[in-house]
Design goal:
By secondary structure, the protein is α/β, with parallel strands linked by helices. The protein has 2 domains: about 25-70, GI Alpha 1, domain 2-like (Orthogonal Bundle), CATH 1.10.400.10; about 110-245, Rossmann fold, CATH 3.40.50. It has 11 helices and 5 strands. A 3-stranded parallel β-sheet has the order 3-4-5, sandwiched between helices. β3, α8 (about 140-150) and β4 (about 160-165) form a beta-alpha-beta unit. The longest helix is centred in the last third of the chain and has 22 residues, at about 225-245. The protein is globular and about 65 Å long. It starts with a helix and ends with a helix. The relative contact order is 0.10.
């Protein structure tokens, strides 16, 4: 069953395939929920349950994707993807890069002059392993990458904005899957607030420069109100850095 769910989670080739009765029948199997509960044991897309819960709606002939349907899709980032947009009358150039091991060598030396780096962490990955190396914890790998970027010689003057993302999934996971899976030394409560605070401290402690500030935000990318608030704050940081670079701040 887990292999079947994983196949659904990674299928990307044809979005117009009919949703047949076989899929609906499988959705009703009692063991399906147990597969979701144990999803950390295999590489199941975070949105799999959302889409399976919406099969009846998605299977309608007149189906139109909702905002949430779109926000919950995922496409693996490969190489460097550049996006231009305007916000608050300012023009931004955003470079999206892949965090997988095979992707890093393509970009880590390319951004010496960037104004800020937004580093995204999946809070929900604390009890999962890498796709490319099933012996390595995802958050351990993320911490190593954050350390290498935060203290990199090319980013000495670059602001680091840390997004601890997927707080909604993490809040549900932490009730069933202890933080000690990732941090055996953790002795605090198993509550959402304390666990997030501990993870935040682990990342911020990697900063070896007393002159560099880490701007941390707890985020949920599918919550548009949360992201609007966070992006306003991020924009203020970037504007301040630009003014500082011009000697006006």
């Amino acid at each position: 069953m887990s292999d079947y769910i994983t196949t659904i989670g990674v299928a990307q080739q044809d979005c117009n395939l009919p949703v047949d009765n076989d899929v609906h029948n499988r959705r009703k199997i009692l063991g399906l929920q147990e597969c979701f509960n144990r999803s950390r044991e295999y590489q199941l897309n975070d949105s799999a349950q959302y889409y399976l819960d919406s099969l009846d709606r998605i299977g309608n002939a007149d189906y139109q994707p909702t905002e949430q349907d779109i926000l919950r899709t995922r496409v693996k980032t490969t190489g460097i993807v550049e996006t231009h947009f305007t916000f608050k009358n300012l023009h931004f150039r955003l470079f999206d890069v892949g965090g997988q091991r095979s992707e890093r060598k393509k970009w880590i030396h390319c951004f010496e002059d960037v104004t800020a780096i937004i580093f995204c962490v999946a809070l929900s990955g604390y009890d999962q392993v890498l796709h490319e190396d099933e012996t390595t914890n995802r958050m351990h790998e993320s911490l190593k990458l954050f350390d290498s970027i935060c203290n990199n010689k090319w980013f000495t003057e670059t602001s680091i904005i840390l997004f601890l993302n997927k707080k909604d999934i993490f809040e549900e996971k932490i009730k069933k899957s202890p933080l000690t899976i990732c941090f055996p030394e953790y002795t605090g409560p198993g509550s959402f607030t304390e666990a997030v605070t501990y993870i935040q401290s682990q990342y911020e402690s990697k900063n070896k420069s007393s002159n560099k500030e880490i701007y941390t935000h707890i985020t949920c990318a599918t919550d548009t109100n949360n992201i609007q608030f966070v992006f306003d704050a991020v924009t203020d940081v970037i504007i301040a850095n630009n003014l500082r670079g011009c000697g006006l701040y």
